[in-house]
Amino acid sequence: MTSTKPDTTIDEDAPGAPISVPDSGDHGEGGKIKMIVQLVKKCLGVKDIAAMRLSLPASLMEPIPNLEYWHYLDRPDMFAALLSINDSDDPFMRMIAVLRFTFTKDLKFVHGKVCKPYNSVLGEHFRAHWDIVPTPYEIEELAESTETYKSESASLKSSKSTTSGVSSFTKPKTPSTAPTSPQHGATDDLAGQMSNLNLTTPIRVVYLTEQVSHHPPVSAYYASCPARSVEMSGIDQISAKVSGTTLRVAPGEHNQGIFIKLTGGPGEGEQYHVTHPVASVNGILRGSFYVTVGDSTIITCEGGKPGHKFRTVIEYKEESWLGRAHFLLEGVIHTVFDSDANHCSEWTKVKHVPQNRVVAFFDGTWRGRIRWKRVGTGSYPTVDHSGVTRSTSSSPSPSHVKLPTPNIPAASFSKADVSGRAPEEEWMTLLDLSILEVVPKVVRPLDKQHPRESRKLWENVTDKLLKKEFSEATKEKVTIEQRQRDEAAERKRTGIEFVPRYFAKDYLAGYAELTSDGTQAVEEELKENSSYCIEGVDIKATLAA
């Protein structure tokens, strides 16, 4: 076996010397674990690994670009369903829909392994789309909820241009590598798969992202479903630190969360802000990685029609040092009034929320079933509500008149203190993540992509990795990274400042506006021809045959 020397070239813009480990030449699991242990030792005491220049052998990476890996649209049908909730003018149910989207946006971590994608280079960009049938959450059909959201009806189309894709009809083994790893036999049972398809006309969700800064590494992203008047934008940046044998990953300085805007329909003008929790990658020294989530996620709503709003607190329960992880969570949806100081921002845990503000509880596991129930009547609209939900009145729905308001002794009590008093039949399934699968994306063929487009840019690295030519893959990777350093040096010499192509340079608000090129790229993706389905097979043509 031959080893490859680490790339120790100094990057003048980086905050310190590069962190690197040599490729030992042993690409089995044992060899990889040894290289990971070396890397962990070098990262001990580093304040923010993500801000450093981290040079890894290609053998430790998965064959997928970073910009493609992170997109928060593992279930684009949930994103598109934000404005099609039974066509109801009900702000509470829109919050329920945003909550469902929040739990499914990173579904890859439920079914797939943790992986290290390629580091993004400055100016790199990625775009894709999904043609899907939205899955609205109709409360009258709760008895069928665990069947309603299975993948069989989630995606009508997959990518003809992708090297491969995760079949939306079979649970993927490694969804993290699906966009670039070749898979065979995905269409062997095409007739059986097509029999499960809902051939309703699909709608399109498009996604665009660009690396807008290299030090610190920052990317901007935008997603849209014009047919449902829903947009999503934000800034991606992480902060990472080794603590013991765990890698702790938190939002970076510029990462303020996900911003969702409703541009039409009953909720027109509403903007939802979804913050990110803190995640930990565990099992590093064993080489058996798994993710746990801690802290809280807060969902707020502003804008739209007058009246009080709803706010959601998702509290991820701390894992025990002993025994296996349980991935538990609990949370509440509560009311927010204009008169509230700081819009209740100090309420970050379930126990912080006063009982007279709570309108719904939920609990469960972010890797499985999550249930919810209404509390009191504050979530119901009045008969003549015009989109404004009342805070106190009797239930307008006979099916919910029987719902009691739990007697919570004090605001400091946890939801767990009262949920045990409620009969099981009063709980409803929000969703079951264990039966959902990642919906594959559609990406344009390589011959239609820009040289800086992710798959095109990393094409040679991906090809070598898939062929297990790890030393050659590392050389290709170093070539790309060195070119980025050379370009940075030339900009510095000539006094030219880098300007993103698709997003405005200002992202202090937590998101960046599209430039004219960005708007054009989104419009092109909306019009992109995708008359192919299920791993490149045209369903209509197959049915005709």
Automatic annotation (TrEMBL):
Ranges of Low complexity composition bias in the record: 151-182, 385-401
UniProt GO cellular component terms: cytosol; membrane
Protein name: Oxysterol-binding protein
Alphabetical list of InterPro entries matching this protein: OSBP_sf, Oxysterol-bd, Oxysterol-bd_CS
Family: Belongs to the OSBP family.
Residues covered by region (Disordered): 1-27, 150-189, 383-408
Organism: Agrocybe chaxingu
Any one GO molecular function term: sterol binding
Top-rank taxon: Eukaryota
